[in-house]
Amino acid sequence: VGVSWLARGGCPSVLPAALMDAIILQERLVERLLSPRPQAPRSHPGRLKDHEKQYVGFATLPNQVHRKSVKKGFDFTLMVAGESGLGKSTLVNSLFLTDLYKDRKLLNAEERINQTVEIIKHTVDIEEKGVKLKLTIVDTPGFGDAVNNTECWKPITDYIDQQFEQYFRDESGLNRKNIQDNRVHCCLYFISPFGHGLRPVDVEFMKALHEKVNIVPLIAKADCLIPSEIRKLKERIREEIDKFGIKVYQFPECDSDEDEEFKQQDRELKESAPFAVIGSNTVVEAKGQRVRGRLYPWGIVEVENQAHCDFVKLRNMLIRTHMHDLKDVTCDVHYENYRAQCIQQMTSKLTQDNRIESPIPILPLPTPDTETEKLIKMKDEEVRALPACTSLVMELESK
Ligand code: GDP
């Protein structure tokens, strides 16, 4: 009622006081509703919020890198080497929970007498929580199996060099954006648990490869030894590695600002090398739990039990903590060495041949046209005419 009166601009002359009060109240209410309300300062769409003014935004860089890397996916190439029957295939399957060796053909003793080392590549795409990993396993069947094992590591070093060469070519080519990296990032070298340390073939192999690839030595089939024997064998292997000047993969130093738990894990990892591992592709029941292990008449050896072997340490190192470092060392140290050697050889060959054939075309410098030449001459003369410059020009010319 009040609104219609107000709208018409009128008010009846006589009205009861209560009704008048009600009308005034109503009037104020309408007034408040229609008038623009005093508001809290609204954020302007183009304007930064106060907390956004505090930083430039490069703190998001890790997120950008993370998103890009996840989108692109990761790749990792792992080589396994060591005499046949030491449990290489079983361990690889246990590490990545795959069956990479379905079609493997095992050779009999006669076939192995003159066997040469083969290089077999298996590739699998693994996905975990949306992160894709292209895993390539380079197997080396036949290594150390023949009667004469002289230079049996040669096909393996050749393979590693070929991958470097391919990468070097691709890098110098036109399509650098889509280079496929087949360089070997790590080599798991299996040492027999039955010897008293390294055998000559182990020393030869590691010495031939240590400057080309990250070698991680492993004591195979650790369930064949009791803990004190494992400790002794580890010590012996460490001593021999030092004695023969073999450079196995060195775990990077732990940052001083890391938390105590991480530092402890890092210490344990370094002290455990060379890792004593056990592999198994069967799941058995131990203390009411289904675990990956080996069932013996006297008990169960659990692959993932840290009291039984170093399998978990190896897996953590390889996949969770050091995969990136292994790739970095491959690229920054081993590949860089190869590349430097290649460039040195190329340069010395060119100097020998006494001709410079640069792969980069040398473009002829543009010769100035006559107009430009005239202008340069004029400017030259102008400079000479300046008394302050004359002495300087003469001095420079005399030199
Ligand atoms: P590879 O020739 O080096 O690939 O060896 P395999 O993985 O084929 O294993 C050879 C044999 O050793 C198989 O019978 C495996 O079950 C067995 N084996 C594999 N790993 C272990 C292990 O850690 N301990 C024991 N005791 N046997 C193993």
TrEMBL record:
It comes from Onychorhynchus coronatus. Transmembrane segments: none annotated. GO terms for biological process: cell division. Residues 72-345 form the Septin-type G domain. One of its GO terms (cellular component) is cytoplasm. CDD domains: CDC_Septin. GO terms for molecular function: GTP binding. Keywords: Cell cycle, Cell division, Cytoplasm, GTP-binding, Nucleotide-binding. SUPFAM superfamilies: P-loop containing nucleoside triphosphate hydrolases. The keyword Cell cycle applies. This is SEPT5 protein. It holds the Pfam family Septin. Belongs to the TRAFAC class TrmE-Era-EngA-EngB-Septin-like GTPase superfamily. Septin GTPase family. It is found in: Cytoplasm. PANTHER family: SEPTIN (PTHR18884).
